[in-house]
Amino acid sequence: MVRQEIEKLLNDSIKKLNIDAQASVSFSFLPAICDYQSNSVFSIAKKTNEKPIDLANKIVKNIEESSFFKFEVAPPAFINIKLTQEGFNHYANILLRDERCGVKKLSNQKVLLDYGGANVAKALHVGHLRSPIIGESLKRLYKFLGEEVISDVHLGDWGLQMGLTELQLYQDGVLDYYFGNAKEEPVITLEMLNEAYPKASAKKNVDEKFKKDADEWTLKIQEKQEPYYTIYKKIRNVSVVQIKKHYKELGAEFDLWYGESDCDEFIPKALKIIEEKGLSKESDGATIVDVAIEGENIPIEKKSPDEVQRYKNPMPPAILKKYNGGALYATTDIATIMMRNADFKNLNRIEYIVDLRQSLHFTQVFRVCKMAEISPKDQQLLHIGYGTMNGKDGKPFKTRAGDTVKLEDVINLLIEKASEKLESNKVEYDRDLALKIGVGAMKFGDLSNNVGKDYVFDLDKFLSFEGKTGPYIQYTVCRINSILNKAQSEECEIHIDSEEEKDIINKIFKLNSAYEVCYKEKSLNNLCLATYELASSFSTFYNNHKILTEQNKNRKQSMLSLLKLVKKALLQALNVLAIEVPEKM
């Protein structure tokens, strides 16, 4: 808001000088000197063949007089801009009155967001954390900035793990009833699944027959043969109950609880289109599509004309059907894109928040969809790949025994560690309170990093009530609530009366600009940093000013109004980050 108004004043002045150029404005790198700065004169001066310092002085001299801003030229040709006292008061009260705290909507696109992606029949583990954390925040960001967002958990429920799990349960005698070998129907439990899948997964790596039988079993499920399909539905239902419980604890909410299986009717339709367009072919009994583009296939020089042409590092083909006709992940993902475009008209984007290591898979899937026109030409298909969550040793987070950490254990650990922090603050045990603080700490620790980078899962650091952490931001809001509850606050305008208050307003401006940066970068780290900086600025103000004991009524009410503004800005950002604020800490 402020930056745009400054840019307008600068560019109106440049226009008066009959110069065909535009200046841009950024936040100051030296806030002690100015609030904003423009470095555009250097590039503009090259067009006009003038000395940059002379041109800068001309531009400033021609700026329309404003009571809100003060423009100065600093060698060699920077234009520094300060907000005046009147300017700070003016914009502070605009922010206070605005229900969005000055943040404008950016887009009205229609987006389908695919995140969560837990696999049915498998216990959720620490590797399932980042997708719901990042996806939920991006969903909220997109909605806040004006987009229509449809969220789909897209469960992995149609692949080999289903065949492996059922086959293992069958060999263990659990499924005898379904094959006429027992009179009593079994109750399939989560504990059974948590034992069966790892056992089967290990067995397939050493037992080729078991692996082949599991392939056939998976095909029977996909063909909805009985009793395989009935058993599949029971396993899916048991898993989904647990998945919903964990995602609820993580604060992840979905419009659709679809899985790979829901696109089943679209698989033959998609394969037919691909075949009719001459894109698919058979290779060793499998159906594939070549998706490599020119430049990726680097030909190796043939030793003879009859030699098969080979390439360096070619993009592998997308495999759409296995040797036995079974569908693969690429098949279901292509069919799912077809289904989504049938169910939701005019989707501008479909985004997938999935591990960075799946980038090749999504490149192949997206190319097939564009080549076959399953995805409209102007529709964006995006894979937002995230990095790995590592332990303090820099390696993927594991138990001491080297096993994958279950998500349930992570959540219990969050509650335990947060409870210890609360106890040290003399707050009695409250599971919901500890869950809010623990999950908030983990989310802020995750989202503070660039989405594509690996990061260290350090719960002790994340749960600190000091520094750039989730609990620090939560505690700041709780502190403001406490002050407002104790004070008799009235409707009052803000009158900026100190450098600390000016800094708070500037930090809100920076926070508001962070939303657009996060939207463009598809990463929430800038919002986390800006939220922390605002909370930190408030703490400085709070420590240097006696709010509740202030004797001047007008001054006191102005400071309380400033607190309301800070609270509103922090809560708005925390809501986008999907971090709840407890009533006490």
Features:
Rossmann fold, alpha/beta, four-stranded antiparallel beta sheet, 585 residues, 15 strands, Gyrase A, domain 2, Isoleucyl-tRNA Synthetase, Domain 1, globular
Walkthrough of the structure:
With 585 residues, the chain is α/β, with parallel strands linked by helices. The protein has 3 domains: 2-83, 2-Layer Sandwich (Gyrase A, domain 2), CATH 3.30.1360; 109-386, HUPs (Rossmann fold); 407-576, Orthogonal Bundle (Isoleucyl-tRNA Synthetase, Domain 1), CATH 1.10.730.10. Helices cover 49% and strands 11% of the residues. A 4-stranded antiparallel beta sheet has the order 1-2-4-3. Strands 6-5-12-13 form a 4-stranded parallel beta sheet, with helices on both faces. A hairpin with an 8-residue loop joins strand 1 and strand 2 (36-38). The protein is globular and about 85 Å long. The relative contact order is 0.10.
| Assembly context of the chains | single chain
Q: From the helix content, strand content and strand pairing, which structural class follows?
A: alpha/beta
**Percent of residues in beta strands:** 5-15%
At the fourth CATH level, what is the homologous superfamily of the largest domain? HUPs
What is the spatial order of strands in the main beta sheet?
1-2-4-3
What radius of gyration results from the CA coordinates?
29 Å
Mean pLDDT, to the nearest integer, reads: 93
CATH architecture of the largest domain: 3-Layer(aba) Sandwich
| CATH topology label of the largest domain | Rossmann fold
**What is the CATH C level class of the largest domain, in words?**
Alpha Beta
Strand tally: 15
Residues in helix, %: 40-55%
Tally of separate domains: 3
Count of DSSP-assigned helices: 19
Instruction: Report low-confidence residues grouped into runs of 5 or more.
Output: none
